[in-house]
Amino acid sequence: MTERGALPMLLAQFQLDKNPFYLVYRDYSESYKGFYHYHQGIELLLIHRGRGHAVLNQKMYHLEAGSLLCLQPFQLHRVHFEASEDSPYERTILKFEPTVLVAALRMFPAANRFFEYLWKGNLTNQVVSTGAAEAYIMQIISHFKSKNLTLTDAEYYEAATMMTIQVLDCIRSLWREQAQTDSAAARPERHSEKIMQWIEANYTTPFDLDKLAKELHLSKHHVSHLFSSETGSSITDYLMSRRIRQACWLLNTESLPIEQVGIQVGIANFSYFCRLFKKITGYTPLQYRTLSFTIPR
Prior knowledge:
45% of the residues lie in helices and 16% in strands. It is an alpha+beta fold. The chain has two domains: 21-184, Regulatory protein AraC (Jelly Rolls, Sandwich); 191-290, Orthogonal Bundle (Arc Repressor Mutant, subunit A). The strands form two sheets. Strands 1-7-2-5-8 form a five-stranded antiparallel sheet, with helices on one face. Strands 4-3-6 form a three-stranded antiparallel sheet, covered by helices on one side. α3 runs antiparallel to α4 and α5 packs parallel to α8.
């Protein structure tokens, strides 16, 4: 993403305040262009077909049929698939506002502990392989869909809550089974992950590709090429998304002048900061500050 490009909105707007459950059932794409963004609630992304990856928390996760990606609220990420007619990208997505499950899960201590961990914990891994459990998860979701409930139906929230808790309980079992295997199967760190870690430590200062390349013992061209080939996006794309993500947090939690917010995230040119912020989020910094988003750091 550069300023000249058509930048999508960083904060995906599906308004969980109006409907705390958001379900996309077996969505199908023969072309797919992901972008860096984050959501208000927890997202569970189950892959049925296709091969790709997710970029989040300065890590890359391989995704394929049977993979289930668990995303925490307001977690900056990008999902990338090389989808085509011969190799489509098919997925089911469940997003939900976690606070609506708090009361219901209190009576299930083990499930509640996992839910709190998934919601607020420091996740070392965010992808599990569903294997045979994929069919069971889809059976739970299909049963909910078959009721054809709408927001105005009295049973809607009860049914959606029960469906989500059942899916979470299945994920809890998968998480427990795969924890030992994941900890034992450490893989070498990718170049793109090292680049994202460097950006995390330096995004508040002017970007210096020469310095980044020197620290990684690579040429400038090779650094840019490696990041693009491994993530499907440019370094600038990732850097600007990370800066604006932090700017959103500062606008919601600090009383700093807007010009100072831009400086603190590494964009000292005030007019450029305002233009870039609006292009990515759809709001001016001042408009965004007045909104009721609550974004954790």
